[in-house]
Design brief:
This protein has 151 residues and is mostly helical. The chain is 68% helix and 7% strand. The chain is built from six helices and two strands, in the order ααααββαα. The chain has a two-stranded antiparallel ribbon with strand order 1-2.
Length: 151
């Protein structure tokens, strides 16, 4: 690959990274990161019923303190509630309130449904190819970065 195409690829990844800014207007205090955390809570709740902060940090590959801060903000805004485990008080579970579920519906489920129409010309196969290519770019650059830091 030549330098021109490397730049083209990196520019496309940079543009994709800013797609969160194109979400419909969010309620005051709610950031795209908050929406991602709410989405993860909703998904994990469906799968296992209980969600810990550590589950969210693993799913988003973000540090636990970073997710703890977002969960605290979401709790203060009334979108999330925290509960301690009955057997082990060190374990804290998070779940969506009714307001959190409504936010998830509007800014994740409904928005994604809308985007299925907007992005229909790309198709399922095209979406899989693009996602695969972006994942591979991230993987290759991450591996290179780690290797260079180890030297």
């Amino acid at each position: 690959m030549d330098v021109k195409h490397v730049k083209l690829l990196l520019d496309a990844c940079q543009s994709a990274a800013h797609l969160d800014t194109l979400l419909p207007s969010l309620p005051e205090g709610v950031t795209p990161r908050c929406v991602r955390v709410i989405e993860q809570i909703a998904q994990k709740t469906v799968v296992s019923g209980k969600v810990r902060v550590s589950d969210i940090s693993e799913m988003l590959d973000v540090t636990r303190p970073g997710i703890t801060l977002v969960v605290r903000q979401l709790t203060e805004m009334g979108y999330v509630i925290k509960e301690r485990d009955a057997q082990d008080s060190r374990v804290v579970y998070v779940s969506l309130t009714e307001a959190g579920q409504e936010l998830h519906k509007r800014y994740v489920l409904d928005y994604h449904a809308h985007l299925t129409e907007v992005l229909s010309e790309i198709g399922d196969e095209g979406a899989e190819e693009i996602a695969s290519a972006i994942s591979r770019v991230v993987q290759l650059i991450t591996s290179d970065t780690k290797a260079n830091r180890a030297e």
